[in-house]
Design a protein that fits this description.
Largest interface: A-B, 23 and 19 residues
Strand content of chain A: 25-35%
Number of domains of chain B: 1
CATH architecture of the largest domain in chain A: 3-Layer(aba) Sandwich
Radius of gyration of chain B: 24 Å
Low-confidence stretches of chain A: none
Number of helices of chain B: 13
Low-confidence stretches of chain B: none
Oligomer: heterodimer
Order of helices and strands of chain A: EEEHEEEHHHEHEHEEHHEEEEEEEEEEE
Largest sheet of chain A: 6 strands, mixed
Order of helices and strands of chain B: HHHHHHHHHHHHH
Mean pLDDT of chain B: 83
Strand content of chain B: under 5%
InterPro entries (chain A): AAA+_ATPase, ABC_transporter-like_ATP-bd, ABC_transporter-like_CS, ABC_transpr_MalK-like, ABC_transpr_MalK/UgpC-like, Mo/tungstate-bd_C_term_dom, NA-bd_OB-fold, OB_MalK-like
GO cellular component, one term (chain A): ATP-binding cassette (ABC) transporter complex, substrate-binding subunit-containing
Structural class of chain A: alpha+beta
Keywords (chain A): ATP-binding, Cell inner membrane, Cell membrane, Membrane, Nucleotide-binding, Sugar transport, Translocase, Transport
GO molecular function (chain A): ABC-type transporter activity; ATP binding; ATP hydrolysis activity
Helix content of chain A: 10-25%
CATH topology of the largest domain in chain A: Rossmann fold
Pfam families (chain A): ABC_tran, OB_MalK
Helix content of chain B: 55-70%
Strand order of the largest sheet of chain A: 6-7-8-3-9-10
Distance between the termini of chain A: 42 Å
C-alpha cells in the first residue's frame, strides 16, 4: 500500500488562480520524493497542501490510506522542516524539540527519552540548553530536523531546508539528510529549486512546471530520457543544448550543411538536444558541427567551453561543451565536435514533448 | 562620534549639569520643604537645607487624615491610586494584546474595519468624550467605585497598534511550525506570542502605569467619596484652601509620595523598557 497518495490534487485560489491544476502521485513507504522546479511552479504550495497549511480545493490526499484533506496539520501526523528553520526563539533547543510532544500530552519521561535519543543522533547533546540565537546556521538546521524527527511522524516534509546555508555546509547537510532518512525509513517529501540537491537526494523526482508535473521518475530516468524540453533544461548542469531544427525526407536538418540521417521520422519541426558532457572533440574531417569558441571556464576537473555553432543556414545558436580535464582552446578558435547519435534527444517543436528517436 | 575638543567637552558637560540642576532643583526644594514646619514658608524665603520636622510631617501625612477636609490618610489614597494605575495598566495590556492577536492572526469579515475603528479611537481620549462617558458610568452605577475609575480608561488604540506591529514581525513560518506542533490558538498565544512580546509588554507597562497613576481629570469627576480619592487629585484639593495658610510641608510630602511609584517603576523596568522600544527580539 502506498504511504502517501495524491489523487487528482488541485489548488484554485479564491481569486480564481489555478496554482495547481491536477497532480497524481503515489509515494511508497520510505521513499524520498523531491519536488523540484523553478520559483513559482507550485512546489511549495503542493508541499503546504500536504502539510495542511493550505486548503486542498480538489482531489484527495491519503496518508496511510486515510483521507486527510480536512484534517488539521497537527492531526495528519506529519512533521515539517522550514526554510528559515522556524525555531521558537525564546525556547531552548530541548524545549523546541519537546514542544510538539508536550502538546500531544506525552508524559515527561517519554519526552525526555525521545529528545535525548534524537539529540544523540544529530550530535546536539551539548546544545540542548542553548537558545536558537546562540547556534550557527547548520546547528539550527539540525535542531529543526530534530524537532521533526522526535515526533516520529508518518511523513517528513522539507521546504527548501538548505537554501539558507553556505555552499559547503549545504553539501554536508545534504548527505546527512539522506543518511538520516535512510536510517529512519520515513517517507519524505522534499522541495527544492536546486537540481543538484534534487538529483542527489531523490529516490524519485517530480519536476513541476506551472503547477503540473512535467515528469516523475528516478533521477537517472529524468537525466537519460527527459520527457520535455523543460525537464531537459532543468535537470543537468550546465543545461542541455537545445537547437530548433526540422526533419525533411528522413534527414535531420541540423543546418543546410550538416544533414544527419534520421529515418522513420515524418517531416516535422523538431528541437534537437544534446547534453554538454556528451559532446566530443574530434578531428576536423570527422566533425558533425563546428563550434566558435567564445568563452572558456576551466574548473580543474572539467572545462566548460561556451560558444556558438556555425550552422549552414546562417544560424549561430549558443552551445556549451563540457570536457573532462584541462583543455585550452583559444577564443575565436573553431572547434570540431562530434555529437554521438546515442546521446541525442529530440523534442517536438510545438508540444515540447519528447519524440522517441529511432534514427541511428 | 569621537572628537577631541576640550572646549566642546566642557560645554556639553556644563549644559548637561545645568539641565540636571533645572530638573532636580524643584525636587530638592520639595524634599527640603517636607522637613520644615508650616511657618517656614510664610517668610517668603525658601529654605534650601533640611529642617527638623521630617518625621512629624511624613508621619502626619501618611497616617493622619490628610488636611483640608479630606477624610482619609494619604496611604489610603496611595492605595486607590495604585489600584487605579494597575487596573488601567493591566486592563489596557490585556485588552489590546487580545485585540491585536485577533486582528493579526485571524481572518474574519471586516477585520480591516475593526482595526481602523480601534485606530480611530485614538482621536477620542477621555477629555473629549468625558460627558457621555460620565453619563454611561453614572447610569451603570459605577460612580465612586474602582471599576468606574478604571474601566472607561482601559481601551487603548496605542497599545493595540503597538502589539499589532510587534505581532506582524512574527514570521509566518513560526506560526505554521506551531500549528504543526499541535498548538491551538490559545496555546500559541501563551506559549509563543506572550514570551515573544515580553519586552513590549514591559515597555507598555511602564508607559501605561505612569499614564494611569497621573490621571487627574477622570478621578476628579467620578469620585465624590473620599474613600476613592486618588493621590494626584488630592494634591490639588489640599492646595485650594479657602481660609488660612496652605500647609506646604504636607503638600510637599504628598507630592513626593505621588512621584515615587512612577520613579520606581521606571527605574525598575528601564532595561526591559528600552529593549522593548528599541530592538525586536526575533
Amino acid at each position: 500500500m502506498s504511504d502517501l497518495v495524491l489523487e487528482n490534487i488541485g489548488k484554485t485560489y479564491a481569486n480564481g488562480y489555478h496554482a495547481i491544476p491536477s497532480i497524481d502521485l503515489n509515494i511508497e513507504q520510505g521513499e524520498f520524493i523531491v519536488l523540484v522546479g523553478p520559483s513559482g511552479c507550485g512546489k511549495s504550495t503542493l508541499l503546504r497542501m500536504v502539510a495542511g497549511l493550505e486548503t486542498i480545493t480538489q482531489g484527495d490526499l491519503l496518508i496511510k490510506g486515510e483521507r486527510v484533506n480536512d484534517k488539521e496539520p497537527a492531526a495528519r501526523d506529519i512533521a515539517m522542516v522550514f526554510q528559515n528553520y522556524a525555531l521558537y526563539p525564546h525556547m531552548s533547543v530541548y524545549d523546541n524539540m519537546a514542544y510538539g510532544l508536550k502538546n500531544r500530552g506525552v508524559n515527561k519521561d517519554e519526552i525526555d527519552t525521545k529528545v535525548n535519543a534524537v539529540a544523540v543522533m544529530l550530535g546536539l547533546e551539548e546544545l540542548l540548553s542553548r537558545k536558537p540565537k546562540q547556534l550557527s546556521g547548520g546547528q539550527r538546521q539540525r535542531v529543526a530536523m530534530g524537532r521533526a524527527m522526535v515526533r516520529d511522524p508518518k511523513v517528513f516534509l522539507f521546504d527548501e531546508p538548505l537554501s539558507n546555508l553556505d555552499a559547503k555546509l549545504r553539501v554536508q547537510m545534504r548527505v546527512e539528510i539522506r543518511e538520516l532518512q535512510r536510517k529512519l525509513g520515513t517517507t519524505t517529501l522534499y522541495v527544492t529549486h536546486d537540481q543538484v540537491e534534487a538529483m542527489t537526494l531523490a529516490d524519485r523526482l517530480v519536476v513541476l512546471n506551472k503547477g503540473h508535473a512535467e515528469q516523475i521518475g528516478t533521477p537517472m530516468e529524468l537525466y537519460d530520457r527527459p520527457a520535455s524540453t523543460f525537464v531537459a533544461q532543468f535537470i543537468g548542469s550546465p543545461s542541455m543544448n537545445l537547437i530548433p531544427t526540422s526533419v525533411k525526407s528522413e534527414y535531420l536538418q541540423l543546418s543546410v550543411d550538416i544533414r544527419l540521417p534520421c529515418p522513420q521520422l515524418a517531416d516535422q519541426k523538431l528541437i534537437w538536444g544534446i547534453r554538454p558532457e556528451h559532446v566530443e572533440i574530434c578531428a576536423a574531417e570527422e566533425a558533425d558541427v563546428m563550434l566558435n569558441v567564445k568563452a572558456v571556464e576551466a574548473l580543474g576537473a572539467e572545462t566548460l567551453v561556451h560558444g556558438s555553432l556555425q550552422l549552414g543556414d546562417g544560424n549561430t545558436p549558443n552551445f556549451v561543451v563540457r570536457l573532462a580535464g584541462h583543455h585550452t582552446p583559444k577564443l575565436g578558435e573553431r572547434l570540431p565536435l562530434r555529437v554521438p547519435r546515442s546521446a541525442w534527444h529530440l523534442f517536438d517543436a510545438e508540444t515540447q514533448q519528447r519524440v522517441e528517436k529511432s534514427c541511428n | 562620534m569621537i572628537e577631541n575638543r576640550p572646549w566642546l567637552t566642557a560645554i556639553s558637560h556644563l549644559s548637561l549639569l545645568l539641565g540636571i540642576a533645572m530638573v532636580a532643583l524643584p525636587v530638592w526644594v520639595a524634599l527640603v520643604a517636607s522637613t520644615h514646619p508650616t511657618e517656614a514658608f510664610g517668610s517668603g524665603e525658601i529654605p534650601l537645607w533640611f529642617g527638623d520636622q521630617a518625621i512629624q510631617n511624613w508621619g502626619a501625612v501618611l497616617f493622619a487624615k490628610a488636611g483640608n477636609g479630606i477624610d482619609v490618610p494619604v496611604w489610603s489614597m496611595m492605595l486607590n491610586s495604585l489600584v487605579m494605575a494597575l487596573g488601567i495598566t493591566i486592563g489596557k495590556i490585556a485588552i489590546s494584546i487580545l485585540s491585536a492577536y485577533a486582528i493579526v492572526f485571524f481572518r474574519f469579515p471586516f477585520r480591516g474595519t475593526a482595526f481602523w475603528v480601534i485606530f480611530i479611537t485614538l482621536m477620542l481620549p477621555v477629555e473629549v468624550r468625558i460627558v457621555p462617558t460620565y453619563e454611561v458610568v453614572a447610569n451603570l452605577d459605577m460612580l465612586n467605585s474602582y471599576s468606574g475609575l478604571v474601566l472607561p480608561l482601559i481601551a487603548s488604540a496605542t497599545a493595540t497598534f503597538l502589539f499589532r506591529q510587534c505581532f506582524m514581525t512574527v514570521p509566518g513560518e513560526l506560526v505554521e511550525a506551531a500549528r504543526i506542533d499541535g498548538a491551538g490558538p490559545i496555546r500559541f498565544f501563551f506559549d509563543i506570542l506572550m514570551p515573544l512580546s515580553r519586552t513590549n509588554i514591559a515597555a507598555l507597562f511602564v508607559i501605561m502605569f505612569i499614564y494611569g497613576w497621573n490621571q487627574y481629570l477622570w478621578p476628579l469627576i467620578v469620585t465624590t467619596d473620599d474613600a476613592y480619592y486618588t493621590l494626584v487629585m488630592s494634591i490639588k484639593r489640599m492646595l485650594s484652601v479657602e481660609q488660612g495658610d496652605v500647609e506646604w510641608n504636607q503638600v510637599m510630602v504628598t507630592t513626593l509620595l505621588a512621584m515615587l511609584p512612577p520613579v520606581l517603576v521606571v527605574v525598575g523596568m528601564q532595561k526591559l523598557f528600552v529593549k522593548g522600544l528599541v530592538d525586536a527580539e526575533k
